[in-house]
Design goal:
Helix 6 crosses helix 11, helix 15 (401-428) packs antiparallel against helix 16 (437-448) and helix 17 (457-475) packs antiparallel against helix 20. The strands form 2 sheets. Strands 3, 4, 5, 6, 7 and 8 form a 6-stranded antiparallel β-sheet that branches. Strands 1-2 form a two-stranded antiparallel ribbon. The chain has 20 helices and 8 strands. It is elongated, with a radius of gyration of 34 Å. Helix content is 53%, strand content 8%. Strand 3 and strand 4 (104-106) form a beta hairpin. The protein has helices at 15-18, 22-27, 46-52, 61-86, 116-125, 128-134, 152-162, 183-197, 202-206, 220-224, 233-240, 270-273, 276-336, 376-388, 401-428, 437-448, 457-475, 481-499, 504-513, 520-542, and strands at 2-3, 12-13, 90-99, 104-106, 112-114, 216-219, 243-253, 256-265. The longest helix has 61 residues, at 276-336. The chain has 553 residues and is an alpha+beta fold.
């Protein structure tokens, strides 16, 4: 049964209808189909039955552990699939867990869902990129690799979520924080929905709290085409499969950290995607997925403890039966005067019928389920060594010859303009000119790392203003010269990072200006030079169809 509605970009399919279809196998490439076979047990004689009482059952630890792992995988898959089916415009959902040991984001098995309707449309249209993402039966199927922070779509979203100021409320605040004429209608609408759901109290509705969590929305194609990004085949295939927007939501439960990524088509209504109700749903769904991911470890510990306890009880019962059988055999031997023992085949009197394991006393200790612990400092050292080896990502691809020539002419023309501008200032006001060092670094950013956040106008102007101001103020102190330079530059870096306007040329300017010999007029000259460089970079880069500058203001 499929139910379609005009207000959604994908058809909603009931879970029961997908449980026995091939579409679900396509949308969950990690799902494996298993079959079980049964055989008729052979009849056993009374002697065999007697001996089976004392023989321990076959070891099933490996099979039980595998069943636990498969149960966790299926529980995570169902939560992700249900989330994707009811979120507006979402055609794919996947979850990543951050590994403290490797310092990378790892996607658990089956932590991926792709809309079955979109998969069928991709099959009909011959969309090979989509099939390579969802169909693990293909030879050219592309599996997800662990991603370091800042690398790939998951890494970029993870870095942005971690750099978000936690004391800043999320955009839009609560449902009633907007001062518009529809607030009363929204209040009544939400009250009706809450009454129908039955899981929201009236106090929660009338006194909503400000939600400090955030959803980061990014366009997928600019990340895939970013020259500062290593080549990622899955990211390129996602763009070709029609995925245009991605949203990241971070979760953290009892030491387990990660994020959930929601993906939508390019033509999806952005206003509805970012609506308050849809974002609240995505945040709540991420909590559910994150809690399931965090539940795996504690659940396995509990199961292992129960198994150990059950095995201990079973062993104690077995030893009690063995002791009772010995007593009974000794009684029969004394009564009959024979040397028969317990069991068929008759052991000699006094000969033990127990195995070495069975001769353990009733007060034997139970082996601990926990492995040997490792020291804190050793773990830290191993983590540092692992990170030092690198994340095994490919370096960024070099520019083509045409792109390199474009960067050459762009930087040449802009620097030439700035140098003539500096000469004009010197002629008009002797003793004043542009400090050229930081502008060489700025040209590298604007024409070789065009999409990088540090290259954008906001970072260039605010970062330069903060750094030069700190450096000029530090130059008037009585500190030793080297201390001035180091302290001014470090303070500038700290302030830029805290305010989210990191700009490498501004750090170089702080080092230069902290040496002294500059006035506050030089701050205005540097800012005017940055404005000219931004205008020039905007004009030259945007003439190239493969570039866009700026990406934000």
């Amino acid at each position: 049964m499929a139910d379609s509605s005009s207000g959604s970009d994908h058809v909603v399919i009931e879970m029961a209808d997908l449980s026995h279809t091939d579409d679900e196998q396509l949308s969950n490439p990690d799902t494996k189909t298993t079959t079980t076979t049964t055989s008729t047990p052979k009849p056993t004689t009374s002697a065999q039955q007697h001996r089976q009482i004392w023989s321990p059952p076959p070891s099933t630890t490996a099979s039980r552990n595998q069943q636990d792992v498969e149960f966790d995988q299926e529980m995570l898959r169902r939560a992700i699939a249900d989330t994707g089916r009811w979120a507006y415009g979402t055609i794919s959902v996947e979850a990543f867990v951050f590994s403290e040991q490797s310092g990378k984001l790892v996607r658990p098995i089956r932590a991926f869902w792709f809309d079955p309707v979109a998969v069928r449309e991709g099959q009909a249209a011959g969309n090979e990129a989509m099939m390579r993402l969802v169909d693990d039966a293909r030879e050219d199927f592309v599996r997800p690799d662990p991603l370091a922070p800042g690398i790939g779509l998951a890494g970029v979203l993870w870095s942005e979520l971690n750099h978000y100021h936690r004391n800043t409320p999320r955009r839009g605040g609560s449902f009633f924080n907007n001062n518009n004429n529809n607030s009363t209608a929204n209040r009544k609408s939400l009250m009706n929905l809450a009454a129908a759901a039955g899981n929201v109290t009236m106090r929660d509705i009338l006194n909503p709290t400000t939600n400090t969590r955030r959803i980061v929305w990014r366009e997928v194609e600019p990340i895939a085409n970013d020259p500062d990004q290593p080549h990622n085949l899955r990211l390129q295939l996602a763009v070709r499969a029609g995925i245009g927007l991605a949203a990241g939501v971070k979760f953290q439960f009892r030491g387990t950290k990660g994020l959930v990524i929601y993906m939508a088509r390019k033509k999806t209504d952005v206003a509805k995607l970012k609506s308050e109700t849809n974002e609240q749903y995505l945040l709540s769904a991420a909590d559910v997925i994150g809690s399931i991911a965090a539940l795996r470890g504690p659940r396995h510990v509990c199961l292992e403890e129960r198994r150990v306890e059950k095995e201990s009880v079973r062993r104690r019962v077995r030893l009690s039966l063995i002791a009772f059988a010995r007593m009974k055999g000794s009684f029969v031997h004394r009564k009959d005067g024979g040397g028969g023992g317990v069991g068929e085949g008759g052991r000699g009197h006094g000969e033990s019928t127990a195995t070495p394991d069975e001769t353990i006393g009733l007060e034997g200790t139970i082996p601990s389920a926990a492995g040997p612990s490792r020291s804190y400092f050793k773990n830290k050292l191993m983590l540092i060594i692992t990170k030092w080896r690198g994340s095994n990502n490919e370096p960024p691809r070099p520019f083509t010859s045409m792109e390199s020539i474009w960067s050459f002419f762009g930087s040449f023309l802009t620097l030439l303009m700035l140098l003539y501008y500096s000469d004009a200032i010197s002629k008009r006001w002797p003793g004043y000119s542009l400090v050229g060092g930081p502008f060489g670094a700025l040209m590298t950013l604007q024409y070789s790392l065009t999409a990088a956040p540090a290259s954008q106008p906001r970072n260039a102007i605010l970062g330069q203003a903060i750094s030069v101001s700190i450096a000029i103020g530090m130059a008037h102190t009585r500190l030793e010269q080297n201390v001035k330079k180091a302290l001014a530059t470090s303070l500038a870096i700290m302030c830029m990072a805290r305010l989210g306007v990191t700009h490498p040329p501004a750090g170089a300017a702080a080092l230069i200006f902290a040496g002294g010999g500059y006035s506050w007029a030089h701050l205005g000259i540097m800012l005017s030079g940055n404005i000219l460089a931004i205008l020039s970079a905007t004009l030259i880069n945007d003439m190239n169809v493969k570039r866009q500058y700026p990406t934000f203001w």
